[in-house]
């Protein structure tokens, strides 16, 4: 815009960054994962806190999840994807940080003027604030997930996204720890005063990171470069008989099935966390404060699982690894539905470990080989997060009925079953590899064409060796 301050971006001279050049841009991206991890950790605790303070039912309390995942991620992710396609990653990230900070600031007057007499109106105000925050987070997630995948070597896209997403987990367990002290302890257990101060701090963090992004020279990935990832690859046919990277967006079937898997996974993850405190207090003898602490332990388990999955993703094929994780998660979820007492709560904590790699792995599998559709495909995969708006109300209705919270955990079980179906199909139709296979990357995408051919990247220990291969003809 005329008269405005220019936004610093640095177009990539070569296909992707390697080595030390990756550290700064990935550090900036990690700060975004940290922001929404913290907000997500607070969301699950507010679910229970509002039940107590505002005297609402479990089903009503899931309104937070509905607006967060449905309003923000389902409705706003396509807008974010379109902005990203037209304006680039940096502008999209700044837009997301602005919305995020605005929504957090609005928590202050909403909490300040809330009364028990107008509790439903107050809860509606909190839902509106959460919606604005969610629009910001959906924008950030659309940009950051895609950027983490395309900025570096495609051979390590899954591991790189796993690592960035791990910091999401680090922040997410800090939220419940803060909540157990400021929301559930002493006189704070029955008021919303401290909600104001926590979210004011969140808003300040969002503004600080926005300033950092504004002045940083963030490497930008051009649309032409994204197209080259498909057009210059060895011509190949996917499991549906289509040339990889070609055709309209609605015919990218792997992406569509991955979107459904993401929808089911996030729905399962959100319901498991949203009703964790209810499960621990009803199915065992824990208080709300103790259960909030245990939720933070579960999120620590989730975080450890992400870092371990990062290491495993450099050894095993992502779809095979996720297939094993999904099988274990289904078995544990079944026990949660049937078990009682401390042992059942312990299994509920452990299942967070096996959830850990699902989101980034599904995202990586679903956005592979999209070429010119990469940015819009990223938006669609992030729309899958809207499963978090659909599953909680279903579980909340079951939990409020005579079946109770324990039986309601059959809802996330359904989600894990679909995830297993998707990754099993993907594994069988993509070579049935167990160990990570060598990746074929366009020579131009690696920063230098070699006779119009492609480069097969072989790994000798930690050393990458590029071998030129002539492009296949049709």
TrEMBL record:
Membrane topology value: Multi-pass membrane protein
A Pfam cross-reference name: MFS_1
CDD domains: MFS_FucP_like (cd17394)
Ranges in coiled-coil conformation: none
Protein origin, superkingdom: Eukaryota
Keywords on record: Cell membrane, Membrane, Transmembrane, Transmembrane helix
Locations listed in the record: Cell inner membrane
Molecular function (Gene Ontology), one example: transmembrane transporter activity
Listed InterPro entries: MFS, MFS_trans_sf, MFS_TsgA-like
GO cellular component, one term: plasma membrane
Main location group: membrane
Membrane spanning stretches: 21-43, 63-81, 88-108, 120-140, 166-184, 196-216, 256-277, 297-315, 377-395, 407-428
Name the UniProt record assigns to this protein: Uncharacterized protein
């Amino acid at each position: 815009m005329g008269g405005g301050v220019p936004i610093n971006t640095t177009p990539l001279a070569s296909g992707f960054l390697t080595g030390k050049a990756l550290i700064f841009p990935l550090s900036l991206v990690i700060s975004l994962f940290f922001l929404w991890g913290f907000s997500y950790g607070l969301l699950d605790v507010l679910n229970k806190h509002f039940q107590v303070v505002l005297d609402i039912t479990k089903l009503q309390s899931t309104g937070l999840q509905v607006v967060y995942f449905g309003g923000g991620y389902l409705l706003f992710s396509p807008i974010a994807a379109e902005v990203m396609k037209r304006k680039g990653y940096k502008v999209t990230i700044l837009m997301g940080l602005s919305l995020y900070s605005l929504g957090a600031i609005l928590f202050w007057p909403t909490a300040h003027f809330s009364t028990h007499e107008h509790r439903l109106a107050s809860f509606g105000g909190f839902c509106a604030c959460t919606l604005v925050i969610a629009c910001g987070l959906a924008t950030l997630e659309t940009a950051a997930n895609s950027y983490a995948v395309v900025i570096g070597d495609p051979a390590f896209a899954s591991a790189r996204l796993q690592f960035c997403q791990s910091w999401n987990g680090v922040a997410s367990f800090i939220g419940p720890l803060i909540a157990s002290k400021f929301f559930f302890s002493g006189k704070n257990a029955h008021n919303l005063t401290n909600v104001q101060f926590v979210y004011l701090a969140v808003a300040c963090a969002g503004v600080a990171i926005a300033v950092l992004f504004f002045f940083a020279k963030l490497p930008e990935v051009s649309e032409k470069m994204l197209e080259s990832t498909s057009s210059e690859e060895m011509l190949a046919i996917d499991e549906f008989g289509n040339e990889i990277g070609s055709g309209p967006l609605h015919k990218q079937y792997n992406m569509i099935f991955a979107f459904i898997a993401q929808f089911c996974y996030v729905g399962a993850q959100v319901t498991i966390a949203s009703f964790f405190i209810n499960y621990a207090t009803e199915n065992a003898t824990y208080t709300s404060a103790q259960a909030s602490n245990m939720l933070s332990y579960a999120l620590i388990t989730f975080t450890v699982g992400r870092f371990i999955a990062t290491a495993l993703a450099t050894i095993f094929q992502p779809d095979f690894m996720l297939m094993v994780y999904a099988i274990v998660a289904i078995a544990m979820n079944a026990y949660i539905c049937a078990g009682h007492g401390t042992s059942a709560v312990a299994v509920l904590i452990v299942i967070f470990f096996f959830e850990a790699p699902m989101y980034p792995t599904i995202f990586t599998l679903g956005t592979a080989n999209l070429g010119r559709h990469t940015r819009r495909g990223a938006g669609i995969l992030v729309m899958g997060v809207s499963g978090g708006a659909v599953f909680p109300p279903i579980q909340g209705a079951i939990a409020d009925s005579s079946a109770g919270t324990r039986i309601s955990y059959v809802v996330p079980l359904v989600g894990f079953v679909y995830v297993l179906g998707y990754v099993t199909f993907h594994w069988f139709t993509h070579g049935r590899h167990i160990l990570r296979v060598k990746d074929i990357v366009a020579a131009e995408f690696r920063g230098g064409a070699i006779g119009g051919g492609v480069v097969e990247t072989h790994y000798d220990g930690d050393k990458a060796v590029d071998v030129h291969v002539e492009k296949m003809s049709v």
